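Lecture 7 notes: from sequence to structure.
We start with the chain below.
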Amino acid sequence: MGTGAGMIVSVRGEPRFLPALVVHSVHARPRLSAVPGSPLSMAWVAGKVVPVARLGDTGPHLVVCLSAGEVVGLWGVEVLDTGFFEKGEGGVEHSGRTVAPLDVTAEIEKALETSA
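Predicted C-alpha cells for the same chain:
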C-alpha cells in the first residue's frame, strides 16, 4: 500500500495521523487570545495572526494546518511521532496498531459546536 509522510498526534488521548501535505508548522503552545463572539481563539505565530480551534484542554503543541484552503491552528494536541508510516486499511501503521487520519475540518466544526 505504500507509505504516508506525516505526523502522529494525540487528540483527547487518541492517536491520529496528520498527512504532511496539510501540516504547515508545529509550535510550542503560544499564548491564546479570545475572539469576542466566537468560540475560536487567535495566536501570533511566525509574525501572523492565526485562528485557533481548541481540540482539547491540554497539549504542549499548536499544530498549524491547512483546512479548506485556510490556515488554522489546532490547540490541545501533542505530537507523538513524525516520519513515513506504512499505509494500512483505515489509516497508517504506528507502534503495531492502525492510526486513523485526523479529519481537520470535522475537528474544527466540533470545536465550534462545543464552544458555542
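Points to note: The chain has a mean pLDDT of 91. The helical segments are 104-115.
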